[in-house]
Amino acid sequence: MTLGISVNVGSIGLCLMGFGEPLENMEIPQEGSSLTLEMERIDVAVEELLARRGAERRDVLGVGLAVSGHRMLETAFNCPLPLAHWSLIDLAPLLGKQLGLPVWADNVARTAALAEAIFGVGRDVADFAYIAHLHGYGGGLVCGGMPFRGSFGNAGEYSVLFGRQDYDDRPALSLLLQHLRAKGRVDLTLKDLKNEALADWDGVAEWVDRVAPAHNRAINAICAVFDPALIVLGGELPHSLARMLIERTEFNNLPRHGVLRDVPGLTVAQIVDAPGAIGAALIPLFETVL
User: Fold this and answer.
1) Could you state one GO biological process linked to this protein (predicted)?
2) Model confidence pLDDT, tens digit, residues 252-274
3) Which of 21, 35, 102, 125 has an alpha carbon within 20 to 30 A of 256's alpha carbon?
């Protein structure tokens, strides 16, 4: 068995996996600003997850940790402000000591892309780009069925496409949350946005129209640099909202000699529940067995 743990703004997901098969998922709140306390809560949740299957820690091969943020060192990340206490710290040794297990770490958007590669669209498509609409806006690239991380481990950091002047017009769910709170839904949380009825809420279509140019910039950059067969809209994005973005997609595709070039298809992610934690649980398998 392996464990996957994904640390997102507002939630921490856990997945217990057999040999390539998710067995149990769990979600606990991410709250507060103490790394020590959150790791202790993760420890308690791991014990509960194992108890559901009558398993013990000695049955676990290892742990994959997925964290929101740019990768800085081997297992250190520069996280969003609400996860500042997880930032710029070599996390794998700390969590490994807490759990008494070996730990590998990666960015949560790329572990979500890995889950999609193994259990989702990747079963039929070897080359695809994954866009993770989370608190932030990132993703991952899958080439030949395997994740491509780049020299510094940050391939798929689509937010780099935007400067300070248009950073707030990215299709990041934290920005949708701000927009809807300004419209009167003051108590909304990120978790509330994972709702298929979201597309019908007042202000949502307005926000989608506002971020459509940024969405199209990212889509066309992916086409130009990576040329995948498919682009997958995932993360915590409801399918209804993903389809709104797909409907507004415009490819930069000028005809030459009257002929257009081939462009990738766009689709919604197939792995909806805990994709970051599921992908993280795959990391120990890839690092030790596969």
Assistant:
1) N-acetylneuraminate catabolic process
2) 998 999 999 999 999 999 999 89
3) 125
